[in-house]
Every structure is written in structure tokens, then in C-alpha cells.
Please model this.
Amino acid sequence: SPGISGEMVEPVGNHYVVARPVYSENLLQLNRAAHQQSSVLLCLYSCSPQRAKKVALGFFPVASWLPAYRFKEWILSDIVSGINTGLVAVLQGLAFALLVDVPANHGLYAAFFPVLVYFIFGTSRHISVGPFPVLSLMVGGVVDRLVPDDSTGNGTSTNSSAIDEKRVMVAASVTFLSGVFQLLLGILQFGFVVIYLSQSLISGFTTAAAVHVVVSQLKFMLQLSTLESIFSQITETNIADLVTSLIVLLVVFVVKEMNDRYKAKLPTPIPIELLVVRVTSLRFCSCSITTVTQEAEFQAPVAPDAGILQKCVGDGISIAIVGFAVGFSVAKVYSIKYDYPIDSNQELIAFGLGNIVGGSFKGFASSTALSRSGVQESTGGKTQIIWVVTFLAAVFLGLDIGLATAMAFQLLTVVIRSQM
Model:
């Protein structure tokens, strides 16, 4: 048979005459490597219509699933689910704005814009993108560090408005920065980091985050400004606020337990958060409360403050990683349950663009609402030791350093187990 670069000559009688060059092993390997390199370069730099279509559909997943949408089968369920999820997202946005120390209306911006972006660029069909308490706490920590409270306690309304504006700009800038980091990581194909996020790590981290959330809300329940004052000035607690908070917590807890216990008999879960907000809103409307501010429309997008960006680079990286870690963990659970693929790199791009747009409209960092009991373990074979390490590190070292410590510990256990 003819060889490489060989030439077959016409047969003479019953014989074939084959002429081909003689290769040594080294020359053959060099020739083969050059041929493979040219093939790879041709594949990388070629732009066929099929390749262009594949790249476009990968970057805009909505163009893939929207034409295949089963309108008659899914539209009613999507409308009902969208209304319920939207109401909860609005309530959570208003509540989590307190964690960020910005006016409540900016929580609505954080609940609105990232959803629109994820609709176009996201790959998961079931996750709800919006404010998340862990990220709200992390952004709030940056806000409190760069724009601390007025220590005199006698600031005028003008000063308070100026402080609020500064805090909003800090929250928006660090959100924008975290979105840029997520976008860059997605473009550079860093989505593989999700394999190091096990169920134990996520569980311990979110439990520690819940502790941070509870502690951060004590000042609103007791009307005491700092954690230290809770112990030193506990006798000055505002009893009315404390009783109201405890009643609301009890009612919400009981109704949520009822929803879980009787979910098979209830046509739809009781929206207790919405009912509580509605009742309290009606109560406040009957009182003579002065309206501090009222906005009838969205504000124009603004550019981030360059001076703030320089001061919170590390915070932006932490927020970017934590937001993606939690968001992708939830997305992966639903992708496995309903058997459809998701792309970790595209999820990074979607979350990044969502935070860039949200930060531009003066919102704060967003991710996915977390269902701790449903997070799928991605690395396998981990023990409860990682849960304990993650929990303790995140509680005592902070959410960003705690997550880094827990991941380092988990990587160490993976190395040790692989060597045994």
C-alpha cells in the first residue's frame, strides 16, 4: 500500500511498483507533529457557519431553548411560579438591603436587573437569581468599612442622605467589580473550580452564614447599634421592637412548618412572608408616618467609583467566588434532578454580567437562593470534618476567609485520601 507522501505507479503486468520516501523514526515523528499542529491551527482559526452558530448558541443559551419552548404545556405553570417567585424576591430584596446598609429600594434593583440578564445568558432552567443573604452580608461589610456610621449620633437629614448615597455607591461599585471578575473567569474557562465544592463544604458555609445573618439582625430586633452594646446595654432594649420581631418569627416559623407538613393537601403553599408584609404595611398606612423618599422610576445607570474599586479588590474577588459557588451548586442540583446540562463557564459569564448590570443601576451583589438540603455533592467521599471546619472558619474568620480556609482544608483531605 502507498505510504506517507508516497506515489503509486501504474501496475506492470501482475506487479505494483510503489515509490515512497524512507523515514527514520525521528523524521516520522517530526512530520507527524507538523501535520497535527497545522490541523489544530486550522481548526482553531477557521470560522465555518456551523462553528459560528455553535459559539453564538453557547453564549446566548436563550436562542437554544426558547424556540423549543412548549407553550401550551409550560406557560401557565411558568406564570404562576413567576408571580410567586417574584413576590418572594421583592420581599427578600427589601430585607437584604438592611444587611447591606443601603435604602430598601436598592434591594428592588438587585432583585430586578440580574434576572433579566440571566434569562438571556444563563443555562439553568430552575434557579432564581437575585439577592442572597451571604453576599449581602459581605457587601455590607465593605460598606460599613468604607462608610462607617456617624459616631456622634446627631447627624442631620442632609448628612444622612449623603451617607446613604456614599453607601449606595460603595455597594454598587463592589458589585460591579465582582461581576467583572466573574465575567473574566468565565471567559478564561475557570468554571472547573466547582469540582472542589462538596455538599459538606456548602452546608457548613451556609450554616455559618446563617449565624452571621442572625447576629446582624439583632441590632434591629433590640434597637442596639453594636454587638458589644447588646451585652452591655441589654436593659435598654426596645421592648416593642423585640416583641414584634419574636411574634413575626414565630408566625413565619409555624406557617412554614405547616406548608412542609401539609404540602400534599395544600393547593399552594401559604405565602406567609407576603401576608406579614401586607398586614404590617396596612398597619403603617393607618399611622401618620412621614415619607422620607419616593422614587417613581428607575435611576439612570452610573459608572463605578474608581477610588472605591481600588479599595475593595480583595472583597470583589471574594464576593465573585462565593456568589458563583453557591449559585452553581443550586443550579447543579436541578440539572441532575431534571436531566439537562449546564455550563459552569457560561454560568460565570451570566452571573458576572448580571452583577455588572445590577451594579450599574445601583443594586448590590446577587446570586441564587440556596436550598441547603438539596445541594448535590460534587467531589464525593467527604466526611463531617469538613462541615465542622467550614462552619468554625466562616463564623470566626469571616465568610470570605472562612470559605477560603475550608476549601484549603478540603483540598488537603483530597490529597491525603488520594495518597492512601
